[in-house]
Structure formats: C-alpha cells, structure tokens
Amino acid sequence: MEQLYRVAILGATGAVGTELLQLLEARNFPVQALKLLASERSAGQHLSFKGEAIQVEAVSESAFQNIDLVLASAGGHTAKLWAPKAVAAGAVVIDNSSAFRMDPSVPLVVPEVNPDAVMTHQGIIANPNCTTILMSVAIWPLHQVQPIRRIVAATYQSASGAGAKAMAEVQAQAQAILNGEVPPTEAFPYPLAFNLFAHNSPLNAQGYCQEEMKMVLETRKIFGAPELRVTATCIRVPVLRAHSEALNLEFDQPFDVAQARMLLAEASGVKLVEDWQANYFPMPMEASGQDEVLVGRIRQDLSHPCGLELWLSGDQIRKGAALNAVQIAELLIARRQLGAAPASLSGLC
Ligand code: A2P
C-alpha cells in the first residue's frame, strides 16, 4: 500500500505557495493531510486542493505537530524562526528561502544535478536560488562531459522572483503608464513596467548584489566544485514569471557545439528550443507554466576557442522554486528519507 504523508505549506498564499499547492495536486503527491500556513494577515482565507476548500492558518508553535513534510516559501526570516521548530516536531523541511542554503550541514539540492545530497539531510533541505537552479539544470550535462572552468552569466529576471505583490505591481504599473499616470512603486524601488534595473538585492563591497553572489556560491556548492569561477550580472526585467539567462561557459578544451546540442536535447529537465531560420529560441512567455528549462542559441564563443554561448528561459515559480521543492520531496520518498529518522539520529538508541 502506498504510504501517505502529512504535509504543510508555509507561505501557502504566496506566488510559490500557491504553485506548490497546484503541483501537489497535479503530480498526485501522496498527501494524507494538508495544512496551509501563512501570516496572521491570511488566516481564515480558503484555498482549494483536490476540490476541497482548505482554511489557511496563521503559523504557530503547535502548527507542525503531526506533520511529516513542510514545504516552506515564506522568506528567510520566517524560515529561520519556524524551520527549526518544525524539525524539532519531527518534520522534514524543504525551504525555498536563502536562510540555510550555505549552511554546510544543509544539503542544497537540484534533483537533476546532486540527488544524492538529500541522503545527508538533518531535517532541513534548502531549495536553491531560482536563477541558480535554472542555470544548473542547463549546464550540468555539459559539466559532466568536460568540467566547466568559468561561467559568465547575465540574467533577465521576472517580477515573480519578488513575490505575488511584485507581479501585481508590474501589471498595475503598466496600466498606470498607459493611462498617463504615475506608476505605483512599493514592491520595487523603481517602475519595472517598460523599464529594467539592476537586481534589487543588497550590494557587497565589491559591487556584486546578493542575487549575483547566490549564483556564484550556490552553483559551487551544488556542483561540489569550490574552484568553479562564476561571475554574474543580474537584471530585473518587465516579465511576469519566467527568468532568462545568457551564459558564457569556458572549458579547458574546445567543446563541440553539435555534441553540446545533443547532450542538452537528451538531458533531464531540459528542452532544446532552436530554430535558427525562424530566429526562434527560448522565450519567457513560452517557458511560463513549463516544467523544463528551455535552452537554445548554443554556439561557439567567437572570442575564445574553449568557450560556448547559450541562452535559456525557465519558469521561475515552477522549476526555479516550487517544482524543484516538490521534486526534492519526491526524491526523499523514493530514497525512503521521509517519515524515517534523520541521518544524524538514525542508529541512536
Ligand atoms: P501572507 O499572505 O499572510 O503575507 P510571496 O513570496 O508571494 O510574497 O509570498 C510570501 C508568503 O509568505 C505568503 O504566503 C505570506 O503570507 C507568507 N509570509 C510572509 N511573512 C510571514 C510570516 N511572518 N509568517 C508566516 N507567513 C509569512
């Protein structure tokens, strides 16, 4: 008989939370009971799961009792506060925030890349940053054939990365600008509609923003490649929910373009989208709602004999966040890691 699990979504009312809910239903995740948690602001709201209206509860000390799995997407501050309590109550937490990603005791997992890392969890598993997930899925198949030495990334990031309010804001801004009105700016520092700006996360002393440093540090951790050289420029663009990335990859030896194309055509989680005659390549509008990362424009770097150029678009809410988290949960079930004692405790008597 299939084992069923008691699942909680923390941040259930957010952009990623609502996608988690839909994915649990669409993928027929083995749910025995489902608890929807958010802030006080949303308590009492109802969300639908398998035709049933489930009431959202404010997260509380008792919320994680009798819960096997917590899928969290409620920001770093909330995760730091509640994830340890959920683990203490016996749950495994898959957290979408950056709170635990660089903690050496917390696995940072992209199932297509480092699935074995889930075996080391001690209660919390971190879901990587969205741009990092999308990039990792697209370049890991190449890295396995010939190690990548250096990545130069430029990102084109949608409003969804800043949450549901930011998505609504960019739509309201577009409407206001078309009406000749001043666009509202609450979620973002500047108007995003008909505009773009450098990613709105704090800068370090070297001038890199947090989002760029996530791509550097998280990719190294996921790939198990501490020497990997990565540099990134992250830009927010007026797109609703899919991120795009221009990637320049440097190897020790020339990488045959036809081989790269063949590897990516067969890679798990990747869809090759290339029609050179029609200038048809990955587009965020087409990536939205798709599980796969769309990859195309694979070509030799004219400026470097060992360089490859490629372009990708991937659904930030889906593979960049909610889908990756659900895939981690499915991996835990497949590896019998859910409902079992965490690795650090097993063997104790
Ligand atoms: P709420 O809707 O009650 O504010 P998004 O990333 O789309 O902005 O969504 C963030 C999610 O995290 C929402 O579900 C939000 O709930 C939830 N959240 C934010 N702050 C807290 C908090 N302090 N405690 C619990 N949930 C929170």
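^ adenosine-2'-5'-diphosphate complex. The chain has eight helices and 14 strands. The two ends are 29 Å apart (CA to CA).
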